[in-house]
Design a protein that fits this description.
Elements lengths: L1 E3 L10 H4 L12 H4 L4 H7 L6 E4 L6 H12 L3 E5 L5 H18 L3 E6 L6 H4 L3 H5 L3 E7 L3 H4 L2 H4 L3 E4 L5 H15 L7 H11 L3 H13 L9 H5 L14 H15 L3 H13 L4 H16 L5 H16 L4 H14 L5 H15 L66 H6 L1
Parallel strand pairs: 2-5, 2-6, 3-4, 4-5
Antiparallel strand pairs: 1-3
Length: 426
Amino acid sequence: MEIFDGKTKPSSTLLSSRFYPETWEDFVGQEHLVGPQGAVRRLVEAGRLPSMLFYGPPGTGKTALARLLARHVGGRFFSLNASVAKPSDLKRILAQAVQVFQATGRPAVVFVDEIHRFNRLHQELLLASTEAGQVVFIGSTVLNPYTTLSKALLSRVLVFEFHSLKESHLQELLLRAIHRFYPGRRMAPEALQRLARWANGDARRALNLLEVVLATVPEGKEVVPADVDRWVSRRFLRFDRAGDDHYDTVSAWIKSLRGSDPDAAIYYTLRLLEAGEDPRFLFRRLLIFAAEDIGLADPRALLVAQAGAAAFEQVGRPEGDLILTEVVLYLATAPKSNTVLRTLQAARRAVLEEVWAEIPQHLRDRHYAGAEKLGRGEGYIYPHDHPEAAQHQRYLPEALQHLRFFEPRAVGYEAQLRTPTEEVEE
């Protein structure tokens, strides 16, 4: 827990915790929020500071903006991190914030970082004082608030989304940090670019890496790319199997496959794989895709996906990545049709919504004593008794004759197919 008056600088030994913006112009990135026409900035400059929720990836300025807002309003700022705090800590802070309001007539700012760590009951401790205007609540979360936070709390706050910082943002931030905390230190442009790229949109990570690199390079020596590479064995890939990163990347992957873009499809495949996604999950989705989005346009697609999944189990990584790549490229470049999906959906609707029609007599089972007396199977035409095993009879119940489930498209192998209805009509 931390309390300061909006002017006192936070105490910390980490560069990322000491380097906070003090003015709007100091803030790097998030122009849609803090730029001259930014939503949050315009609210503050209009004299309003409503309760807000900041949502976005780590290291994008959520805490920095909360501190900047407290500095602008000049009020008390109470900070709490829900990952380590208890609900009793929140109750105590809220009580202190209400006392500030009663003494000054001005609401204090209560900032709760990682608010999603509190359950919905504890989140709703904020409702009464927030709604009464005694407290300005600012929360931050890296998870989608619409799926993780209390609906009652969401209805009382404005939600602002933060975006990952661009490399240009991070380079600007790093240069400012060097100028302010390490005057005279020199860093080659390539090293600065390397450091910003490794941070992958996370300012906190970039600043922490900068601090480590400068601590290990003599002051008179220029920092070169090799000095950065010494501390970063591989790029940091932001990924959360239960969060938006996972679902957004998988969505982009499937849509790229469906759109027949092999470049995008393999890029997102590797983005998932290198970030730690289970290859078995990827193959399960590919098996589904082969039936749902390719189907009869190329029936071999399902066989390729199934064979790839089995082969990957035998080989494993890293050589199995070749197998995965082959399957992805095959599916991405295969002709596409969702006839299988449409047929399944149409037939399921008929089963669940249409009349429960009697099975025609000529299709019923007659392999039991007495079936012939009941007329079971009477009139059935055995297709193999006719040239090319053609169909010359109706198979759907009489009440469902008007329905059509399978409507093939003129795509790939599917273009060669004809429906049973077309056969009968001829």
